[in-house]
Amino acid sequence: MAKKRSKKGFIFLGIFVVVFIFAVFLALQKNSSLNSKDQIVVGFAQEPDSLHPLFQQMAVSTEMYALLFEDLVEYDNNWKLYPRLAESIPSLEKGGVEKLSGNRMRTTWKLKEGLKWSDGWPLTAHDFVFAHEVIMDNRVPVVSRDRDERIQKIEAKDDRTFVVTWKQPYAYYYLGHSFLPKHVLEKDFKEAPDKMDQSEYNRKPLGNGAYVLNEWKPGSYLSFSSNPNYFGEKPSINHVIYNVVTGGNTLESELVSGKIKAISTVGLNLPQALGFEERKRNDFNFYYIDGMVWEHVDVNLDDPILKERGVRQALLYGMNRVGMVEKLFSGKQAVSHSWLPPKHYGYNPNVKKYPYDPLKAEQILEDLGWKMGSSGVREKDGKKLEFTIMTTADNKARSDVQQLIQADWRKIGVKLEIKNQPAKVFFGETVHERKFQHFAMYAWVNSPQSDGESLWTIKNIPSKENNWQGQNNPGWRNEEANKIDIQVPVTLEESKRKELLSKEQEIWVEDLPALPLFWRVDISVTDKELENWKPTGTDTPVTWNAESWKYKML
């Protein structure tokens, strides 16, 4: 005889059914949202170090920056300058730039009407003045204050007009004026300027760009939505999510499955992209843009052995960079010969080259007194030619490069140990505070206007005394190059700047404060339905026009 079911049991069953149906509904909604034309999910391989404009150093941070902020003047994907927050770009010919007595200069900027921060507060000239005050306070640990140190004063004439008086002419006056929300950060600045790099603003900044940050879940994702107070064209896609996806295979599988719609330029390395394209070239759009990203090995010039220029030259002769590029990158990335790329106006194609020549490398070391020891490692005065090299962990392309360098140097009697770190530690501490013992391998992102000042001037050697300000991480001290670096930015004529940069490159390649490797190709992959994805190959990130991203109409 069947057992009679109680009312309680029916109620429980009913609740279970309702919960199950609701769960299925949510799952369907989530999947529907995932594939919505109003959302794009982008996969990327590294998290930002900071979202604060004054403290970020990683390339991926600039990709987030361009979602959250619009600058006074910007470059497009064709390297063409255009006014963004400004009504126009001042110039000597059209007005807004004046030469003053005492070899000074003055520029006047007029902001567009109706600019606002994402909280609706007016963005004014006073925010530019405030940012300059913050940057010039030595208690604030900014990455660099090179530009602002050139400024005698910034004055807000009214809410939309500010005037910059320069201590001397400055060739790049139209780029890089920082601005910060005074109404939000003034309190932090007054109370604890030395701790501004630790404030909540670094993780959730108030911006003025097409998007606002909703949430940053460390190790997982950053979620953005359209800014209701954006001054520009309303974004075609209202929601942007950047998912942290480690490993090229995972990025590929998530794009194939539809979990993401694009792979950031900070995602696949070239071998991974080439393999992916071979398998799926008809299913996705693959972008390979000749870039200005310089992969190199910084040399710690404080090391007594590496201070010897001949040792550095021998190490470069003993490195098969052409073979490296052929083996790892199918020859699609060019070997670099200085820190300036061939696309740059100041590039010197006639500088000294270091072709792979292990015999010459060995002869240089022999002449310097480094004799081959019984262990296969060269020795001199009781010391061995033993070094360590560091870079970001979990980056297969860099790891492969390290192993090839290790094998090449072993042939000439140099022992190299690989010690890698997580990206945040490597960039946030090791490189920034010059804690690498011998070699640090990473990349600098150049722009069409890059020169050597922030990278190679003596004052820009990071130290405890200058609060780790500057990017001359090798600690290069060359008086002649230092003078050129100081002169280039104050030379308004491009032809004269080119002559100066050509001369400095000749000095640099002889001294080798860093070992140049190659120029990276900017790589990204997208769903075929996504339009207006326009990588630039420069320090202008792919998000420069994110408000124009859209899906094809079916």
CATH superfamily of the largest domain: Dipeptide-binding Protein, Domain 3
Q: Count helical runs.
A: 15
Count the domains. 3
Low-confidence stretches: 1-13, 16-21, 23-35
Q: Describe the biggest sheet?
A: 11 strands, mixed
Shape: globular
CATH architecture of the largest domain: Roll
Per DSSP E runs of 2 or more residues, the count of β-strands stands at: 22
Keywords:
single chain, 554 residues, alpha+beta, D-Maltodextrin-Binding Protein, domain 2, Dipeptide-binding Protein, domain 1, Dipeptide-binding Protein, domain 3, 3 domains, 11-stranded mixed beta sheet, 4-stranded antiparallel beta sheet, 15 helices, 22 strands, 30% helix, 21% strand, globular, disordered N terminus
Topology:
Layout: H1 7-34, E1 39-44, H2 59-68, E2 73-75, E3 81-83, E4 97-100, E5 104-110, H3 125-135, H4 146-149, E6 151-158, E7 161-166, H5 182-191, E8 211-217, E9 221-226, E10 239-244, H6 248-257, E11 262-263, H7 270-280, E12 284-299, H8 309-317, H9 321-329, E13 334-335, H10 358-367, E14 371-372, E15 378-380, E16 383-384, E17 386-390, H11 396-411, E18 415-418, H12 423-431, E19 439-445, H13 453-456, H14 479-487, H15 494-511, E20 514-527, E21 530-531, E22 550-551
Parallel strand pairs: 1-10, 1-11, 17-18, 17-19
Antiparallel strand pairs: 2-3, 4-5, 5-7, 6-7, 8-9, 9-10, 11-20, 12-19, 12-20, 13-20, 14-15, 15-16, 21-22
3D architecture notes:
The protein is an alpha+beta fold and 554 residues long. It folds into three domains: 36-69 and 209-283 and 528-554, D-Maltodextrin-Binding Protein, domain 2 (3-Layer(aba) Sandwich), CATH 3.40.190; 73-201, Dipeptide-binding Protein, domain 1 (Alpha-Beta Complex), CATH 3.90.76.10; 290-521, Dipeptide-binding Protein, domain 3, CATH 3.10.105. It contains 15 helices and 22 strands. Helix 11 (396-411) links the parallel strand 17 and strand 18 (415-418). Helix 14 runs antiparallel to helix 15 (494-511). The longest helix has 28 residues, at 7-34. The radius of gyration is 26 Å and the shape is globular. The model is unreliable at 1-13, 16-21 and 23-35 (pLDDT under 50).
